[in-house]
Amino acid sequence: MVSNLVIPPNWSSFPEEFRQRLGSTVGRQRLMQSEGSILIVAHWVPEHDEAGRRGILFWRDGSGEWRASNGDPGKGALGMHLNRYAKRLDEYESAEAKAVKADQYLSLLEGLAPVVRSSRNLLETLEEARKAIPDDRTLIDHRDRAYDLSRQADLLYESAKNALDVAVVRRADEQAQTSQKMMLAAHRLNILAALFFPFATLGAVFGTTLTDNWTWAHSAIPFLLYILVGGLTGLLLTRFVSRPG
Predict the structure, then answer these.
(1) Would you give the end-to-end CA distance of the chain in angstroms?
(2) Residue 23 in 3-state DSSP?
(3) CB neighbours of 74 closer than 8 A, spacing ≥ 6?
(4) Is residue 223 part of a domain?
(5) Which residues form the domain of 237?
(6) Which residues pair with 40 in a beta bridge?
(7) What's the domain count of the chain?
(8) Residue 204 domain flag
(9) Which residue in 140, 122, 144, 120 sits closest to 131, CA to CA?
(10) 41 occurs within a structural domain
(11) Looking at residue 30, what DSSP letter applies?
C-alpha cells in the first residue's frame, strides 16, 4: 500500500500536487508530472500468492536529481528496481528448466502471471516517463531494459504454458494406456469366469447327495458328462462375453 506516510520525510520539496494525487493504496503503476518534475509510481516484484501490491516511488525533481522511497541511491534506484525483476525472472527460468510435472508448471504459471503483468505495466510507465523527459538518456536505457524484461517474462510464461500442455497430454496418454491395460485384464478375468462358471455351478449342484441313489453314479459317465456339459456351456458363455458391444 502507498499513502502519504510512505513518502520519506527528507523529501521536503516533494510537490504538493503529487501528495494530493496519491491515494491510500498504490493503485496501478503510472506517471505523474508537475512543474518539470515527474513521479513514477511502481510496484515491487510480486511475490508468489501475494494478493495485494506494494508500491515504490521514484521522484525526479526539476533539477534532474532522482530519489527512491525505499532509500536506493539516486540515479541507480530505477536500475536496482529492474535488477530485482531480472533476478526473479532468472529464478523462474531455473524452476521452469527443472519442472517435469503438471503441478510444477501450474505453480510456476501462478507465480509468473503477476510478474508478467507488472513488468508490462512498468514498461508502459517508463515509456511515458521517457516521452515526458526525452533528453534523459538514463530513462531511455531503463525503458529499453524494461522492454527486455517484459519480453523475457512473456516468453517464459508461454514456454511454461506450452510445457504444461505437453505434460497434460502426456499424463492423459499415460492414463489412457493404464485404463486400456485394466480393461484388458478385466476382460481376461471375465473370460476365465465365464469359462469356469458352468463347472462351478454343475459341481455345486451334482456334488451333493442328489446323485447318491443313481445306479450309474459311481461310474465314469457322470464325470464325462460334467466335463462335456461344463466345457460346452463355458465356451458359449465365453463367446457371449467376448462379442462386441
Answers:
(1) 64
(2) coil
(3) 65, 66, 67, 68
(4) yes
(5) 184-242
(6) 31, 58
(7) 1
(8) yes
(9) 140
(10) no
(11) E
- Answer whether residue 198 is part of any domain: yes
- The rounded distance, in Å, linking the Cα atoms of 36 and 33 is 7
- Alpha helices for the chain (secondary structure H): 16-21, 76-98, 102-132, 137-206, 221-242
* C-alpha cell belonging to residue 198: 458352468
Please give the model's pTM, rounded to 2 decimal places: 0.70
Helix (H, G, I), strand (E, B) or coil at 182: helix
Question: What is the three-state SS of 62-111?
Answer: CCCCEEECCCCCCCHHHHHHHHHHHHHHHHHHHHHHHCCCHHHHHHHHHH
Per residue in 172-211, pLDDT tens?
777 777 788 888 777 777 777 777 777 777 666 666 555 5
pLDDT (tens digit, 0 to 9) for every residue of the chain, 245 residues total?
333 346 788 888 888 898 888 877 788 899 999 888 999 999 999 988 787 888 899 999 988 899 998 888 888 999 999 999 999 999 999 998 898 888 888 889 999 999 999 999 999 999 999 999 988 888 999 999 999 999 999 999 999 998 888 877 777 777 777 788 888 777 777 777 777 777 777 666 666 555 556 665 566 666 676 677 777 777 777 777 677 65
How crowded is residue 219: how many other Cβ atoms within 10 Å of its Cβ?
10
Residue 193, burial from CB neighbour count under 10 angstroms (0-12, 13-18, 19+): middle
> How far is it, in rounded angstroms, from Cα 33 to Cα 103?
45
Look-up: residue for cell 494478493? 51
